[in-house]
Design goal:
Length: 379
């Protein structure tokens, strides 16, 4: 029997970026000599009876469950734990510290968020998480540098391993083809919907593209985030619909709220001419949607959040100011009317992401797992 890994994260059928990331890493790391077979799945209480992968379930704020989960994970050779403030119980997710304190095996913590201006308690929690880990992963240089500059942590523990992306057909084989038979170009945004995604700025930008022929369509794909629905229903989506009608773009902007598996999502992304990420956040140091768009060879227009600035600097897309529909429209116009520009971006995207397909990322995690296990044995 090979090395057995434990994972701590949200996990499908939960629909969120963290769950998708962990499922992809789990699958990519399973192979000869390594059994990625135990997942402690983080759940809201109402999801307790849904399907789960082999392992256990940990309901937020369930302290006895934390102890039981730790006991199960301690039978593994090493643990990979995904960290976001919002997925653990307690103030600023501080219950993760209860779990980490009970782990007796080498533990790797993957940081999905590193805030530039955290509240004092958020800073305390993240510093304690890093202190409790044997190794820490950030997925971008921006996150690494932010952690180094803003937090009192041992940076010798910290490695950079990029967010993985599916291994798709080469961009040249997929081409920048339209989805509709009449040649209508497609602008695509996908992911869970909610305030802060900046969709309103994309809608306003579409109203400024009346001179582009054939007129582009803006497809907004994804369900509303479950926590947003629980808090405010579909108010955000309904407000966007009102905005579309007021701007006269209701026929060229459409919502596609179905949930897609990996194959169906690949087909959807393949159909797009350009991907738009108009996010409001200035803190986003990791974006799975961004890395998947670039890996798919799609030109990207994104607001200047840190991961976009870093990943698109080589020419795979255009970075624009936040909340600026005029700048978004100008960037879209350039890509949609200049096939040479779009083709150049696709080529640069392929070069940018050559090393971030999931098998390559899993190999880096395998090396890190081997290192923390050997260091633990030596200690």
């Amino acid at each position: 029997m090979g090395v057995q890994l434990g994972f701590v994260s949200t996990y499908p059928p939960t629909q969120c970026g963290l769950a998708t990331f962990t499922a992809s890493l789990y699958e990519a790391m399973t192979g000869p000599g390594l059994d990625a077979g135990v997942v402690v799945r983080l759940l809201d209480a109402e999801l307790v009876h849904s399907a789960t992968p082999p392992g256990a379930q940990l309901v937020m704020d369930d302290h006895p469950g934390i102890e039981a989960s730790a006991q199960r994970l301690n039978r593994c050779d090493a643990v990979i734990l995904q960290h976001e403030f919002g997925v653990y119980g307690g103030r600023d997710g501080e219950d993760v510290l209860r779990l980490l304190a009970q782990l007796r095996v080498p533990t790797i913590v993957v940081l999905h968020t590193v805030l530039a201006n955290p509240a004092p308690h958020q800073r305390t929690v993240l510093e304690a998480v890093v202190a409790a880990a044997d190794a820490v992963v950030t997925m971008t240089l921006a996150a690494h540098n932010r952690l180094d500059a803003g937090y009192a942590v041992d940076m010798s523990k910290v490695s950079i391993i990029a967010h993985g992306a599916p291994a798709l057909r080469p961009p040249a084989a997929r081409a920048l083809r339209p989805r509709f038979s009449d040649g209508t170009p497609i602008v695509l945004t996908w992911g869970l919907l909610g305030p802060g995604k900046g969709i309103e700025w994309g809608i306003e930008a579409m109203a400024l593209l009346s001179d582009v022929q054939p007129a582009p369509h803006y497809v907004i794909a994804g369900k509303t985030h479950p926590k947003v629905v629980a808090r405010e229903g579909e108010a955000y989506r309904e407000g966007l619909t009102v905005r579309m009608r007021g701007l006269g773009v209701a026929t060229s902007v459409r919502f596609d709220a179905q949930y897609r598996d990996a194959a169906a999502l690949t087909e959807l992304v393949d159909s797009a001419d350009v991907v738009l990420l108009p996010y409001d956040s200035t803190d986003q140091v990791t974006s799975g949607v961004l890395i998947e768009a670039v890996a798919a060879g799609k030109p990207v227009v994104a607001t200047e959040f840190p991961h976009a600035v870093e990943l698109l600097s080589g020419g795979a897309g255009i970075v624009v100011p936040h909340r600026d529909p005029v700048a978004i429209a100008a960037a879209l116009h350039r890509i949609l009317t200049r096939r040479d520009v779009a083709a150049s971006m696709a080529a640069k995207a392929a070069a940018t992401t050559a090393q971030v397909h999931w098998p390559a990322i899993a190999a880096q995690y395998r090396q890190l797992v081997g290192r923390v296990i050997s260091e633990g044995i030596a200690a």
